[in-house]
Design goal:
Largest sheet: 7 strands, parallel
Number of helices: 7
Strand content: 15-25%
Number of strands: 7
Distance between the termini: 37 Å
Number of domains: 1
Shape: globular
CATH topology: Rossmann fold
Order of helices and strands: EHEHEHEHEHEHHE
CATH architecture: 3-Layer(aba) Sandwich
Helix content: 40-55%
CATH class: Alpha Beta
Length: 248
């Protein structure tokens, strides 16, 4: 597998905004064919139209990552359109943090479905193709919260720790197939994630943190590009990064 971005086929979930959108823009500008999945069809199509209008290759497929059939359809469309899949970026995620005593069970369930099952479904959809190719790169998005736990973020941290565990197990299992794996754990990055917080106290704490220290989403895109462009014998397995000013 070439370590050049140009010509690679990259599938990105959660691509309609934030980290996924930033990655799509940078990788497309560098010559990758990007296949974009997200639930918000209008925003997804608008992004794909913008990228193709600028001379890039982009395909939009409305995708709910809590549905395996839809994630498989996304990956299948990439292979049917471009002939292969080189990189799978399992980026879709939610962060409705709250103290456990608030008993926001519906939000717990939704985080587990999106943040954990969504990653597993992305792996399940991409892995058969990559095994057949004997090449590929699976990138899963965790968080600083996957390394540290704070009051109000227990379930979110649990889901993001699970992403790290899944990624490490995957790394060990795919060695026979020449597949690389990377788990990326960003700190406070300027995205819509804080907007998913419904608990007022937690929302105010996160709003203040993000206003003070958050860095642009293109920081994530550059991290993705760094991992992708390493020589074939280099497997960058884990990247943890924060705003320089972020203490947590």
């Amino acid at each position: 597998m070439s370590n050049d971005i140009a010509g690679k086929v990259v599938v990105i979930t959660g691509a309609s905004s934030g980290l996924g959108e930033a990655a799509a823009r940078l990788l497309c500008a560098k010559g990758a064919s990007v296949v974009l999945g997200a639930r918000r069809a209008d925003r997804l199509r608008s992004l794909a139209d913008e990228l193709t209008g600028s001379g890039g290759k982009a395909l939009a497929i409305t995708t709910d990552v809590t549905r395996y059939d839809q994630v498989k359809r996304l990956v299948d469309a990439a292979v049917e359109t471009y002939g292969r899949i080189d990189v799978m970026i399992n980026n879709a995620g939610l962060m409705p943090q709250s103290p456990l005593e608030r008993l926001k069970i519906d939000e717990w369930d939704r985080m587990i479905d999106v943040n954990i099952k969504g990653v597993l479904y992305g792996i399940a959809a991409a892995l058969p193709y990559m095994k057949k190719q004997k090449a590929g790169h699976i990138m899963n998005v965790s968080s600083v919260a996957g390394h540290k736990v704070r009051p109000g973020g227990v379930v979110y941290s649990a889901t993001k720790h699970a992403v790290r565990v899944i990624s490490e197990g995957l790394r060990q299992e795919v060695k026979p197939y020449n597949i690389r794996t990377t788990v990326i754990s960003p700190g406070a990055v300027d995205t819509e994630l804080p907007n998913t917080v419904t608990d007022p106290d937690t929302a105010e704490r996160l709003r203040k943190l993000y206003e003070e220290v958050a860095i642009p989403a293109d920081s994530f895109a550059r991290v993705v590009a760094f991992a992708m462009t390493q020589p074939d014998d280099v497997d960058v397995n884990e990247i943890l990064y924060r705003p320089t000013r972020q203490e947590f």
